[in-house]
Amino acid sequence: MTTALITGASAGIGAAFAQELAARKTNLVLVARSQTKLEQLATQLQTQYQIQVEIIPQDLTAPQAAQTVFDTLNSKSIAIDLLINNAGFGEYGDFLELDRERQLNMIQLNILALVDLTHLFLSQMRQRGSGNIINMSSVAAFQSMPYFSVYAATKSFILSFSEALWAENRKYGVRVIAVCPGPTDTNFFTDAEFPPILVNIAEKNYTSTKVVVREALAAIEQEHPVIVPGDLRNQILANIPRFLPREAITTFWKTVLGSRK
Ligand SMILES: NC(=O)c1ccc[n+]([C@@H]2O[C@H](COP(=O)([O-])OP(=O)(O)OC[C@H]3O[C@@H](n4cnc5c(N)ncnc54)[C@H](OP(=O)(O)O)[C@@H]3O)[C@@H](O)[C@H]2O)c1
After folding, report:
1. CA–CA separation, 145 and 192 (whole Å)
2. How far is the CA of 8 from the centre of ligand 1 (A)?
3. Does any ligand 1 atom lie closer than 6 A to the CB of residue 32?
């Protein structure tokens, strides 16, 4: 049996990864801050699918968080075959008006924790000559986004980083992929404090978490470096920026996102 570690497993896309992988008889390590939610999910999955589920309640923005997760698993001799760096959040608004600490926390979670976990687990995977890493990016990665500036920039980082690691690690038997969903059926937009009218537009264009997860798992099997799950709408969001001047795209997003402020 293989073992997958999922960050941000207590809700949304991470919890959907847990459900799908459990149904495929994969043992799981679930990481997030909400201990009670992780315990409830672990109990459900163990009972329903007879798999082993470890939970690690951990704030991934805390100092040495990735090392703590890594050491915890090593002390239990649990090797990770599939690392899913999914935990992340965004915040809507004018950069200067947003809380400085929260923007730095976003970078800490979306980028630093992801890089640190990747470094730690990739080393073991390369020694074994096998392993998979799924990094959760976004269609936001393909363009800058006024009023969502730090978030979109973190997702661009993840896309660039993951594609580079995909190329570096193929010869070692380790597959790396950036998953770039469009609006997906979770609490993400509400938690990011988007204005209700923009949440409404997102809701009308939601892809289900199940589709995101299934297409991500299929794409890593096919050794693709990047997947944009969902239908044509997400393909358009990801690909239009390649054909238009950068300032036209940025101005478009400023109009869409900024007009609601
Ligand atoms: N939903 C979308 O439309 C969408 C689109 C593109 C990309 N994405 C990306 O997909 C990923 C998952 O998003 P989602 O929509 O599923 O969001 P979500 O429902 O809000 O889930 C986020 C997960 O991250 C965990 N988390 C947040 N802060 C954390 C911290 N400091 N330490 C550890 N875990 C933390 C949360 O658990 P706790 O609160 O329990 O810690 C939760 O399990 C994110 O990286 C997001 O950027 C989402």
Report:
1. 14
2. 5
3. yes
Ligand 1 atom with the smallest distance to the CA of 16 is: 16
Measured distance CA(14)–CA(12) in Å, rounded: 6
The rounded distance, in Å, linking the Cα atoms of 256 and 228 is 22
Residue closest to 92 by CA, chosen among 77, 103, 81, 101: 103
pLDDT in tens, 116-149: 999 999 999 999 999 999 999 999 999 999 999 9
Evaluate whether 138 touches 202 at the Cβ level (below 8 Å).
no
Spacing, Cα 243 to ligand 1 middle (Å)? 30
Give the domains, in start order, of the chain with CATH numbers: 3-258 (3.40.50.720)
Closest CA to 85 of 111, 56, 55: 111
Whole-angstrom CA distances from 131 to 82, 125, 141 are 6, 5, 25
Residue numbers in the chain where pLDDT is lower than 50: none
CB 207 within 8 A of CB 183: yes
Angle at 76 (CA atoms; ends 73, 82), nearest 5 degrees: 40
Q: How far apart are CA 206 and CA 16, in angstroms?
A: 15
Token pair in block for residue 200: 């409404």
Task: Determine the pLDDT at residue 261.
Answer: 54
Ligand 1 atom, smallest distance to 191 CA: 20
Q: For strand 53-57 and strand 82-85, is the pairing parallel, antiparallel, or unpaired?
A: unpaired
